[in-house]
Specification:
The protein has 351 residues and is an alpha/beta fold. 41% of the residues lie in helices and 16% in strands. The strands form 3 sheets. Strands 9-8-10-11-7-12 form a 6-stranded parallel sheet. A 4-stranded antiparallel sheet has the order 1-2-4-3, with helices on one face. A two-stranded antiparallel ribbon has the order 5-6.
Length: 351
């Protein structure tokens, strides 16, 4: 891609920037792309993707047609160029660039540093993907990359970390992939209904309707990753099964992709019961956030105990996410970081 430099950036009239554009700039580069439509996609609606790059990398960016002008420090301009090239490769392949993709690209470039020649074509394969019929699902952070690799290689995987890191989303994506490839016959989704004390009888409707409020995030992921007709047919035939954790007792789950969400709210006995349901040719994925335990005071979390006891056991993988891996919204990452900082201060209650 051709690049050129000049003394000062060219800015669109009326464009607002976080940076003082009157201050002298150390560098400026112009990045030109071949595909105008892909360039528009990577820029984002109303330039929101460029605005995120500006805030995170401390540069000023402006677009005219298929040219993007970047002004700022040399390192900032170089990093922004590499982010744009990575997003351009993504746009030409998927025709869609979300803000989570932008944040993931920024983090990947920052982690790579600036002491080597960046290859955007190699970058597009840097992170693992889950190829589904409806859409590909690509890791956006190094932790997500490790998570997908673990999901592909291990029969039992723990995804542990704060909200917004993609634990449940990627777990459902992997289950859908296994189901579409006919590597498993069914998908089983479970979650402890702590708020109702596992006693759901007071709620109206059949069993699915009773547990629907607790499994709504998983439903949302299913419908986003698979055709709605396939999901509905699977729910009706039992190939996709929704069940509260209490109803897992006594079963042996074979040829299935099994997901336990919000596992931090399981007791030790519940977790042991669930883990021992694993049957032949099945994959089990357990996700949870240890900082959001809703169990009664003094009752230990089954997730924390299982993670400790099964650490290093063959066939079991644990992937831990931090606030740095939050991709839901950049403000969520700062919120998580604030709570983590509070919890680490001596004399304060555990999160």
């Amino acid at each position: 891609m051709p690049k050129s430099a000049s003394d000062s950036p060219t800015l669109a009239p009326g464009r607002k920037h976080d940076r003082d554009v009157s201050a002298p700039q150390e560098a400026q580069i112009v990045v030109a792309f071949d595909d105008n439509a892909a360039t528009s996609t990577l820029v984002g609606p109303y330039g929101q993707n460029l605005a995120l790059i500006e805030r995170r990398l401390g540069v000023v960016a402006d677009t005219r047609g298929n040219h993007v002008t970047i002004a700022g420090t040399r390192d900032g301009c170089d990093a922004a160029r590499r982010v744009l090239e990575m997003l351009y490769e993504l746009a030409t392949r998927n025709k869609d660039v979300a803000q989570g993709d932008v944040e993931g690209a920024i983090r990947a470039v920052i982690a790579q540093g600036s002491l080597f020649e960046f290859d955007p074509k190699a970058a597009k394969t840097q992170f693992e993907e889950l190829n589904l019929r409806k859409r590909p699902v690509r890791a956006r952070t190094a932790a997500q990359d490790s998570y997908i690799r673990a999901l592909k290689r291990h029969e039992l995987v723990f995804g542990i970390g704060p909200a917004g890191t993609g634990k449940t989303w990627l777990a459902v994506a992997r289950a859908c992939q296994l189901f579409e490839r006919k590597e498993v016959d069914r998908i089983i989704l479970s979650r402890p209904a702590v708020e109702a004390g596992e006693r759901l009888g007071f709620l109206p409707g059949d069993m699915r309707e009773k547990v629907d409020p607790y499994l709504r995030p998983i439903y949302d992921a299913l419908y986003d990753l698979m055709d709605s007709r396939v999901v509905e047919r699977g729910l009706q035939s039992g190939e996709i099964e929704i069940a509260p954790l209490a109803f897992m007792r006594g079963r042996t789950l074979t040829n299935a992709a099994i997901i336990l969400d919000e596992a931090q709210n399981t007791t030790s006995m519940q977790m042991k019961m669930f883990l021992t349901r694993l049957g032949e040719n099945s994959r089990m994925i357990i996700t949870g956030d240890p900082s959001q335990v809703d169990l009664p005071n003094g009752q230990p979390s089954g997730l924390a105990e299982a993670a400790r006891l099964l650490d290093g056991v063959e066939g079991v993988a644990q992937v831990r996410f931090t606030g740095q891996d939050v991709i839901r919204h950049e403000l969520v990452a700062r919120i998580v970081a604030a709570y983590e900082g509070e919890a680490k201060q001596p004399g304060l209650g555990k999160a």
